[in-house]
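Look over both lines before class:
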Amino acid sequence: MAKHAHTKLEIVFFIYLWSIDPEAVKIAMSCFALFAYEADIRFGFDEAAVLTILPNYNIYMELSTASTTLVTTGRNALQKKILSLLRRIEYATPGNKQAWYDTFVSQQHLAKFLAVYPKRVDDLGSGGSTASSPSVSASETSGFVGGGYTKFGKRRTGVHSSEHDIEDVFHEWANMTGFLCALGSVWLPIKNRPGQHGIPADTRRTSMEPVSSDLHYCPVTQFIGDCLKYLVCQNEKFGLQIQRHIQDLLGHELNPLCYPILFDQIKIQVDKFFDPNGQVICSEQNTQFIDNVIVIMRSVFEMKAQQAAQNSLEGPTTTTGSSNTLVVPSNNTGSSTSVVGGSSNDPNSSSTAGSGRGGPQQTNENPLANVIILEQLVLNIVRYARHLDTSVGAVTIRIRVCQLVESMMKRRDDLSFRQEIKFRNKLVEYLTDWIMGNSHQFNQVHALGQSAAGVSVGGGVNVTTSQLVVDQYQHLTRELDQASMEAVASLLHSLPLQPEESDRGDLMEAKSQLFLKYFTLFMNLLNDCGDDLNDDQSSLSDHHQTNNERATSNITSQTQQQQQQQSQLINQLQQKQQSLRNSTIVAMSNLLAANIESGLMRSIALGYHRDPQTRAAFMEVLTQILQQGTEFDTLAETVLADRFERLVELVTMIGDKGELPIAMALANVVSPQYMDELARVFVTIFDAKHLLHQLLLNMFAKEVEMADCYQTILRGNGLPTKIMSFCFKLYGSHYLYNLFAPILAKMFIADLRSYEVDPSRIEQHEQLDENRKNLRLLTHDVFQAIIDSSPQFPLQLRILCSCLYQVVQQRFPQHPLQAVSTVIFLRFLNPALVLPHEFGIVDAEPLPRIKRGLTLVSKILQNIANNLIFTKEFHMRCFNDYLRSTFDSATNFVLSISEPINITTIIPSHEQQPIENNISDSTTLSPTYPMSYISDANVLALHRLLWYHQEKIGDYLSSGRDHKAIGRRPFDKMATLLAYLGPPDHRPLDSQWISYDMTATKFEELMAKTQMHEREEFKSLKALNIFYQVSSF
């Protein structure tokens, strides 16, 4: 009963927050403290219990405190404060969810009424609707909300309502809409919301629960979609006000967790402005929607900076408390009256917002990172603006589009781009078309102004009406140039030019031509800025002289006033022209700095141009890129090799927690048909960098995390298994040959022996006991050879076993040895023993009886590895005593090859790199790390795999749980490097990285197998010092 009463009170208090009566709102705000008092009285000694029954404890206390400490009593200021607090509510409760939905249905009725006003409100019950507003039928309403809300809406919006009542209805609708925007996160189907498990479930069954938790059917999605439709409301009285309020509320008051829904809904509407063939459908209503949406999106992008500035301006006040200060009540019930009051000067009596029970309410998550459709949405908006006419309104929209792009680039680190380089290149292509692109249109308007008839204005001054239009259009085009250049400058920062993939021929030549196109345009704009400034000064002087000659009275005062106006106007024009010039210089500097290898030779001739102004402009560009610290290493002949080397270093980059951001992202998104190739590339590259242990730790951790039990580890066909198999093949071939070749040679000589122990398969002339003896002797020889070979076990495979041991021990502490033992015998030793001819141990395939004997030996060895005796196969039970006698030896062998290895002790000092997470600090073994290298084929294969999977890699890194820790920098660097390298199909034939035999990957296997660096021939050749050797290539 108390639980239901608590929910009912919570609903009432929340609903009164959007009331148009400020006093009622403040009373409702102060009542939220009652919930906190109740929780403290009941569970004050147990903070966890308090947060269980009242998860939004801190916010409720801030709402109560704000009701008494808010200095401004204005309606708008009060609502702003309430909405800022509601946006910080993280936990959904039955009360706030019910209050949100009740408000949503009431808001729909009021919105529908305002959209069709002054139409009779009684007509709304018939289910009729207009094209400019979403409709909700009366039957739908009665199914969701009680009659009280419906009657409330009709009472406030009756037919005979006064004009004052209608204004109150509008303000009430605005408050409702802001409330729904700020509190919308409580209806989001967020999985694993922090603390959600501790919130008691509401036993009351309501009809408002959505049938599906899918975001598409979320009521917040419907609410935001309806709000966007009202951006084109055409109501005579309230249409413009509705549009402005929707702009402000969606842009500034929407809960950040709802941003992905907002952008998805905007994209759905914008996509309707294109026909199935991709052609733009221009209309007045569509243009109005685009214009309003640009304002909303720009506000969302700028919200972070605005909030920071607002917080810095607000600060603590000198009143009884700050609106940003939370005073946590004492657990002592006797002092509960001092909760709302208290001095803000006492540091021990209060704390900052969100620092009370439950810790900070506002998380540092970035919801914009979850917007994955931003690129296509922005491109569609720009495409629509490109197809508009040449009117003043169209130019204004283009200016706002440029401002939107600039705001987006300022939030670049917070956004998730799937193909950022390609996206930004496309935007540069589109926006540069607007720079000086309206000159021919301006000439048409100017010609129209010249031919228009003059209109005589008082004072005898002849003013041409069309000339005013020309001046306005000229002013707007200059503003468009300014906005375009600022947006292009932000886009060109660290942006390698990337021609269209359809362009054929030499990639460097295509980049060079694209650079020349942009650089020439910017130089023309610089020259145009200087010419316009001179023309403006000349025309203003002439106009001033003409007016002075025509003046008839007050010559002195009018002349002084006109001179002041002329001076101010000239200063304004000079400032604008200088601002445009500065933006152009920045854009040219960013363009050249990011494309120095393809642009310097194209632009260096400008330093010798005969025009002093052009030479001065180019020197400014060079000066700025030098001040930026632009690296000229890209002009070296080894630039291509250097970039491939940086690509390898980026893939092998280790994070603060030992993670491999790019490598693991590629591993998670690679197509199955490329797994074998990726396994080969990863193993050779990481081993060459002496980081094989980091690769294995990350891969095995992924495999063990997905395993239900230790028996299933590395039993599938995923990338970790393929990497392990390639390690066995690359590093274990020589070991297997030395281990099994002598034993198999003896078997081939004594080919008359039989090893069959199954009575149902034994031949008549064979003796079962003799065969058992032969099999036991063979098994003993093989097992003893394995045990004795522990010192010769390859170093890389020791690293593999050690990594697997550590990872399994963290997940299954009781079974690390069993996991390593099972894998080594099942995946490494037994396959080579059963099929020695396929592993190069013997030349010919063994005879059937020998092959049968090897199969039975492998079966016994696998049981030894699994620490199991035979139970199901009766003919094998005779070997159980032998199995029991070998368990300890097998365990010691596995322990010896799984011992921790300190990598820093086995790498030559001149090849050591900073390694953040070693396998162990102990120095159990200190062999010499074998020399390794990276072939051209592997580097080119890595380039190809990253190029074709870069979009999926970006999605994975953006949606990963470690996104905040890793950030976007690794992916941004990778995308930039790939853009500089170009697509794999555009590699020049004379590249030093080209491989004439891309399939010749067995060479490195041969080098590893024969241990060439240990031979005297290699050492004597190395002593001549005629070859240059590096650690990685």
About this structure: The chain has 37 helices and four strands.
